[in-house]
Each structure stands twice: as structure tokens, then as C-alpha cells.
Amino acid sequence: MQEPTRSDLPSPAQVSWPILSTENLSIYYGDFLALRDVTMAIPERKITALIGPSGCGKSTLLRCFNRLNDLIDGFRIQGQVFYYKQDLYGETVDAVQVRRRIGMVFQQPNPFPKSIYDNIAFGARALGLQVDLDELVERSLRQAVLWDEVKDKLKTNGLELSGGQQQRLCIARAISIKPDVILMDEPCASLDPISTLKIEELLRDLAQEYTIVTVTHNMQQASRIADFTAFFNAQADEKGKRSGYLVEYGTTDQIFQDPQEEATRRYVSGQFG
Amino acid sequence: MVLSPGETDFPEIPPRPPVSLWLDRSFVWATRLFAFGVVGVLVYIAIVVGLDAQPAMERYGLAFLTTSAWNPVNDTYGALPMIYGTLVSSLIALLLAVPIGVGTAVFLSENFLPPTPRLVLNFMVELLAAIPSVVYGLWGIYVLIPFLKPIGAWLHSHWGWIPLFSTQYLGPGLFPAGIILTVMILPLITAISRDSLVSLPPTLRQAALGLGATRWTAIFRVLIPAAFSGIVGGTMLALGRAMGETMAVTMVIGNSNVLSPSLLAPANTIASLLANQFAEARDLQISALMYAGLVLFGLTLIVNVLAEWIVSRVKYY
Ligand SMILES: Nc1ncnc2c1ncn2[C@@H]1O[C@H](COP(=O)(O)OP(=O)(O)OP(=O)(O)O)[C@@H](O)[C@H]1O
Ligand SMILES: [Mg+2]
Fold this sequence. Notes:
Oligomer: heterodimer
Strand content of chain B: under 5%
Strand content of chain A: 25-35%
CATH class of the domain at 35-112 and 179-268 in chain A: Alpha Beta
Structural class of chain B: mainly alpha
Bound molecules: adenosine-5'-triphosphate, magnesium ion
CATH superfamily of the domain at 35-112 and 179-268 in chain A: P-loop containing nucleotide triphosphate hydrolases
Shape of chain A: globular
Order of helices and strands of chain B: HHEEHHHHHHHHHH
CATH architecture of the domain at 35-112 and 179-268 in chain A: 3-Layer(aba) Sandwich
Strand order of the largest sheet of chain B: 1-2
CATH topology of the domain at 35-112 and 179-268 in chain A: Rossmann fold
Order of helices and strands of chain A: EEEHEEHEHHHHEHEHEEHH
Number of helices of chain B: 12
Low-confidence stretches of chain A: 1-7
Largest interface: A-B, 33 and 24 residues
Number of strands of chain A: 10
Structural class of chain A: alpha/beta
CATH architecture of the domain at 86-270 and 308-314 in chain B: Orthogonal Bundle
Shape of chain B: flat
Radius of gyration of chain A: 19 Å
Low-confidence stretches of chain B: none
Helix content of chain A: 25-40%
Largest sheet of chain B: 2 strands, antiparallel
Largest sheet of chain A: 10 strands, mixed
């Protein structure tokens, strides 16, 4: 059932050059500790899935990787996040450059209120890339399996698409600027099974060149596409505030077939609480 | 066991209580009444003004719009200077107030400042709108006009060959009037633009920044375009306000009914003309003033239609 090559993967801790890694990372929103003491390494050109119950801090962690949390008042971190050997939160780091390399697809589709064409071309234009925009738009839309549905109406507003189409538009937009890493927050949550399969194929394709970190609530999806899986859980402290933490991280096969923690076993087999 | 329908109690969704139904209906009717009431008042005013303007319209026709004599003694009236004054003073105000207002709105909607000072600034900007226009007028006479003197003199001596600056700065005129109007419409533009910027979904900004856009790009290529209809709406409201503003303008514009293209010369606007002349006007002069009022009415209407058109054009870009 699993791809044979995958069982040969080393555990993520042994990967020599993780593209992204965290060390004792804790994330706060004001006084609220959202995620506690996460140390993990994300290998290059692989798909890493983040799974766990709602509110355990998956989106929070994802946004930390491209410094998108910077926009949130009261956000602060302890510990470190690295891009290769560079501290992403170092003083001289330009967050704009970080985001240019580490792209993101959000949990809710968020197209710009512009035409489909302009949505895709936005990144290249904003970055001043010297490329053939028509070609860029077509390629990105094809990759995101949206081209056939919209090729005749590239001038219509992106907001007039259905929710699933909007999400694929956002995927196309994210890959249009060819980032090194694509962070995806439940990219398939609003898609039908066929588009989902197509997106999963796309992710497998993209993983040849890109590093993908994706959040998913769909266990089958994680086991189908991810090379590595990290399971997060949330635990209430004395005052009843729930902080997320990393329970277990390993190859997808380990997590799904031979979890070390009881919580992981219960979660991946669909038994909660 | 097979049950026949009447035999047993199937669950039933309770009907709406009649009171709530009645309340809903009367509410719908009440709102309908109010909506038509507003339109009715507008139409009624237009008709009354139109009827009173009738004699002047018959006598002067469209020439009223293109001639510039305003002479109650021998009953010749032409509103061109006031139309020019109205449009130009409002245009000056718009040209200055839109960039300043939208800029302020961007500043106040971003987190450049911590929340508390931002709140204070917000409040102060809105307070600008609470100053009575007669106070603006006084400020115009005693502060603004002297203050603008060197600027006006400079404009005339360096750019005097442009008709707009072709006369000496005499004090009262279109220039100070335009500046006063700028200050008066600034809070309107700022408040409405800020509100439409603040109400944009935060995911829009995240999307832009997530694509490697700088804050500048996010603001100018995504946020301002997305808030464009609100900004245009605020601007048009402000323009309407500027064209209709009476008291402050009257106090600083010089009330000269002679046509001069120069911003530095005394001039007049329609609203200020009406305010100045109504008290002593008789017969045909009243009618001519009504006609001028109708022209102002028409101008604001055109401005609003234009705004609607711009917004509808720009919605899909
Ligand atoms: N902008 C914010 N300000 C304050 N608290 C936040 C913010 N965003 C998230 N949180 C809190 O951080 C915790 C983790 O949220 P997060 O969105 O990361 O969860 P998640 O794992 O992505 O959940 P889901 O699966 O439902 O998307 C939650 O308790 C949430 O209330
Ligand atoms: Mg989430």
C-alpha cells in the first residue's frame, strides 16, 4: 500500500540539512501560550504533514515559518526557527524576503478582489520578475488543476469562483512565484474528492522540487501524500488554558503504523478523547 | 405496525406566532415608507425650486449658465462666475484633501502606531468635523488669508503667466476658499476611507504579504484598490459637502460676481451667492437665485452619477 521507497527514509532528526527547523520554539499570543517547546526539523524536498486536533496550534506554527505571525498584535516567540542555518527571527532578516521564499496557502481561500489573471500575476508583478505573464498564468493554473475551468474567463473576478475553485486559485497563486517551501493550511478542506486527488498528485509532483509543509485533518490524505508526519495535541494547564505541543514526529509510516505514544495511536486510528 | 396519518402525533414544526408576523410586516412597511419619504422630500424640494426658478429659466434659458453678468438693477443674470467658483474651489479642496485624507486613513488603519495613540489621533481627526463652519470662516479671515499671502505672491510672481495665477493676491478669493474647504472635508474623506480599509478582511493582507509583497505593495496594490469603492464614496460625499458649503466660503471668497480665471482673485460660489443675496432679493432676482440653486442641484447630481460610474467600472480590474 505505501510506496516502497518511503520506508527507507531516515527519521527526520537524522536528515542532514533540514530546510526549516525549530529549536525549543514556544509561541505566545499576548500572555496565551499557543504552542509549547517544539523542536523539529523539516527535510528538503519532502512533504511533511502536521496533524492534530483543532486548536492545537498547527496554523500558528505554519505561520511562524514565514513570519506571517508578525502581523498579529501581541505575537511573540521564544526559541528559534531556522531556514537552513539562518535564524529566521534574526535581527537583520528581511521578512519580505522570507515570505518570497516560503509561500503559503491559507486555511480559508483568500483571492484578491481582482481578476483571475491578476491574482496569479500579482506575485510576479510585485516582485518585479521579468517573465512572460501569460505563460506564467497558464502554467500556474494548469498545475493547480484549474486551467480548464477558467481559461475562458481569466478576466472575471476571483471572488466569483466557487470556494473550491478559489482555493485552487490560491494554490496557483502561491506556486506562481516558485518559492522554496510551500506552507499549506488544509489546502483541500473545501475541495471535492476529485480535485482533492488532483491536488494531492500536484503536491507529489511539486515535492520533486519544492518542500511542502501541509496541515491536514484527513488521516488518509496524510498517509497518502506525506513523507513525514508530526502529531500535535493540546493540553489544558491548571488555569484551563489549552497549549499545543508536539507529541510525536517521524516518518509517516512510523506515525501511522508504529506510533510510540498512546495519544498518537488513538488519534491516527480515529479514537479521540 | 402501520399507522394511518391521523392516528398518531408526528412531530410538528410550530407556526410563527401572529404577533411576530405582524411586527415583521409592519416593520417592512415602515422602512418602505421611510425610504420613499426620503425620495419624496428630494423630489418635492426639486419641484419647488424648479417652479420658483421657472420665470428665470424662461427668460434666460441656457445662456444663464454661460454668461457672467449678475446685475439686479437691470435684471440681467448669468451664473458662470459662480459655477466656475463652485467647481474650482471644490476641485482645489479635492485635489488636496484626497491624498492627505487617504494617506491619513492608511496611517490610521495600519499598526504604525500603538493602539492608544492611534485612537486619540482618530478622535482628533473626527473632531475636525465638529468645528462649526462659521469658526472655520473666522479662522480663514484672521489666520489663513494672511498666512497664504507670501504663497500667493510667490505663485503670482513665478507662475503669473498661467491664467490661474494671473492676478495679484488680494486676500479673499478662490485660493483661501479652496484651502478652507480642504480642511473641512478632510475628516469626511479620512473617516470613510479608514473605515473601509479597516473593514477589509485581514486575510487579504496576509495573502499579499505571503506572496513576498512589501507593505507598500500590499497597501497600494491590494488594500487601497479593495477599499476603492469606499474611498470614492467618501470622496464624493466630501465633494458634495464642498460644493454646498456656504458660511465659511462666503467669509473668505470675496463674493465677487465678476468672472476671473485667477485663483488669487475674489470670486463667488453658488451657495455663497444664495446666502448673500436672498435676504434682499425680489421678483426675478429670487427666481434667478432659485435657478442657480437648481444648477447646484444638477452639479451634485452629475458628480454622484459620475462616482457611481467610476465605482462600477473599477470593481473589476
Ligand atoms: N490571532 C490570534 N490571536 C490570539 N490567539 C490566537 C490567534 N490565532 C490563533 N490563536 C489561538 O492559538 C491557538 C491555536 O490556534 P491555531 O489556529 O494555530 O489552531 P489550529 O491547530 O490551526 O486549529 P484548526 O485545526 O482548527 O485550524 C488557539 O487556541 C487559538 O485560539
Ligand atoms: Mg488552523
